Amino acid sequence: MKKGVMRPGHIQIRVLDMDEALKHYVDLLGMIEMDRDAQGRVYLKGWTEVDKFSLVLREADQPGMDFVGFKCVDEVTLDNLQADLQAAGVSTQEIPAEDLKDCGRRIRFTIPTGHSFELFATKKQTGKWGINPRNPEAWPRELKGMKATRFDHCLLYGPNVAASVQLLTQVLGMDLAEQVLDPEGKQLAGFVTVSMKAHDVAFIEHPEPGKLHHASFFLETWNDVLKAADLISMTDTSLDIGPTRHGLTHGQTIYFFDPSGNRNEVFAGGDYHYPDHAPVTWDVEQLGKAIFYHDRQLNERFLTVLT
C-alpha cells in the first residue's frame, strides 16, 4: 500500500550547548556541517546523503527531539497525504517553505505517541559530500570520526504505540516490519519501514508522551562499529551499551550519549523488508534477547533514560 513516502528526511534535536554538540556530531560522529540559519540552528548531513541536510541542531534549555520529517516523492503526493491525514481525523499544520533553510513546505501533525511528525517533498540537493557525481571515487578522504553515512532512523517512546503504527501504515502507506507483543496480544513495540530497511522509525510503549530514545546513524560494516567503540573510549564519551547485536532487526550496534544527554546509535547490517513480508514478532518475555541478542538481558538505563 505504498503512497509515496520515500525515506526519513530529517530530525531536529535540541542540545544544551551548540559548540559542544558540534564537537560531538561533527568531530566524533563524522557528520558534515552544511549551513546555519538566523535562529542559530545548525544543519548537518551524512556524507552519502544527497539532500542538503538530515540533522538539525537547535540550542535549547532541555534536550530531546522537536520533530522528525519524511520525504515524499513530489508535491502532489504531499497534498494527497495531507488530505488522507485530515480524512483520518488528524489535524495538520502547513509549515511554509524556508522555515527550514533550503527546504520546501512541510505538513506537520502529531501522532498518538505525542511526537511531532512532518512530511515534505522538496529540499535542495547538494549531492554526496566530497564525491563527484561523475566517475565517483569510493569515499571522501576528509571524513572525520566515525564517518557516519546517513541519518537512518529514530526510536521513540510514548503511549498508544498500536494507534501510531496503524496511522503510519494505513494512512501513510508504511509497513510494519517487526513488533513486540504481550501475552494478551497488545503491541508494545513497532518497527516501521518505508523502504527495504529493517526500520525507518520505531516505537516502544511508554506512559509519558513525546520522548526520544535515540537517533541512529548508519555505518558500513561491523568493523566500523568496533572502531566507533574505540573512538567513544578515546574521547571519554558516555557509553550506554555495546558493541553488540540486536535480535530485533539483527543490526550490529553501539549506543552512546551526546553532551546534552541525547542518546545516539551507530549501527551496521540489519535485516531487509519487502511489502509482502509478514511482520517478525517477538514475545515480550524474550525482550532481553530481542534488544541485546548476545547478553539476552536488559540494561535498565537503556529502557529508562530518555530525552
From TrEMBL:
| Gene3D superfamilies, sorted | 2,3-Dihydroxybiphenyl 1,2-Dioxygenase, domain 1 (3.10.180.10)
Please give one Pfam family short name. Diox-like_N
Q: Which reaction does it catalyse?
A: catechol + O2 = (2Z,4E)-2-hydroxy-6-oxohexa-2,4-dienoate + H(+)
Q: Where does the record place the VOC domain? A: 7-122, 150-269
Cofactors demanded by this protein: Fe(2+)
InterPro entries, from UniProt? Answer: Catechol_2-3_dOase (IPR017624), Glyas_Bleomycin-R_OHBP_Dase (IPR029068), Glyas_Fos-R_dOase_dom (IPR004360), GlyoxalaseI/FosfomycinResist (IPR050383), VOC_core (IPR037523), Xdiol_ring_cleave_dOase_1/2 (IPR000486), XylE-like_N (IPR054560)
**Electron transport among the record's keywords?**
no
Keyword Repeat assigned to the entry: answer is yes
Its keywords, alphabetically, are: Aromatic hydrocarbons catabolism, Dioxygenase, Iron, Metal-binding, Oxidoreductase, Repeat
Q: Which family does it belong to?
A: Belongs to the extradiol ring-cleavage dioxygenase family.
According to UniProt, the name of this protein is: Metapyrocatechase
Q: What is the lineage of its organism?
A: Bacteria, Pseudomonadati, Pseudomonadota, Gammaproteobacteria, Oceanospirillales
